[in-house]
Structure formats: structure tokens, C-alpha cells
């Protein structure tokens, strides 16, 4: 697995998805829920007492972005002591060596989830929803990829 030329594109995609699943998703859910709750409270205070669906959609977007950032960043941090089975360690090492490929997984999921949230809860058109989802997904990819890139030299 040391040479990329030995791994097909389909295998690289499977490795990226497998490594993304090894992230700390429970902690990510807690951080996302907390961030979304704060965003909802601030949005409600800013818009008055009435809770509009736009405020709810914005809070859900913040929650999703934090969820995918924390979970994805944990996935690219790579091999940790006591990280599970031998195959898990190999997948984590691959993820640490390929942070941008792994970052694409939570980024793409962020785009899809954000588009669904905005289409379901707001009157925003499809192009506006896709644009919002794309820039939020790009933020997730940037944070996760940079965490993975600059964590290589640690420990």
C-alpha cells in the first residue's frame, strides 16, 4: 500500500470512506449539537422571540459543519496508540498519508446534507442551496485537510 500506482481509483475511494468512518463521531455529534444549539440561541435572540425556519436552517448548517469538521479531523489524525485492530491501524496510516482524499468524504457529505436542510426548511432556490452547501463543504475540506497535513510531524 505504499505506492499509489498500485491502488486503483475505486480502492482509493473505498479507503477514503473507510478511514472517514474511523473518526470520533460521538464527540463530533456532541460538538455539532452544542454549536448548533448556540447558533440557534443567538439566531433567536437576534431575530426576536419568533423562531423562523431560516434561523433553524442556519443553526442546523452550523451543527452539520462542526460535526463533519470534528469527525473528519479525527479521522485524518492517523495512527494512534491502541487504535484498534491491525486493519484499523493500516487504514489510519493511509488516512494520515492522504488527508485531502479523506477530507473529501466529510466535505461531500456536508454539501449534500446542507442542500437538503436548506431545501426542506427555507424558500431558497436550488442554486442558492447548492452554493451555500459548496462553500460550507469547502470549509470542511479545508479544515480537515489542513489538520491532517500539519499533524503528520507530530508525535
Describe this protein's structure:
With 155 residues, this protein is an all-alpha fold. The chain has helices spanning 9-20, 25-46, 53-76, 86-97, 99-121, 126-150. The chain starts with 8 loop residues before the first helix and ends in a 5-residue tail after the last helix.
**Shape label:** elongated
The fraction of residues in strands falls at under 5%
Uncertain stretches of 5 or more adjacent residues: none
Q: H/E element string?
A: HHHHHH
Ends distance? 22 Å
The overall strand count is 0
Give the averaged pLDDT, no decimals. 86
Radius of gyration: 17 Å
Helix content: over 70%
Q: Could you describe the largest sheet, including whether it forms a barrel?
A: none
Given the structure, what is the number of helices?
A: 6
SSE class: mainly alpha
Spell out the blueprint of helices and strands.
Layout: H1 9-20, H2 25-46, H3 53-76, H4 86-97, H5 99-121, H6 126-150
In short:
The chain is mainly α. It has helices at about 10-20, 25-45, 55-75, 85-95, 100-120, 125-150.
Task: Jot down its keywords.
single chain; 155 residues; mainly alpha
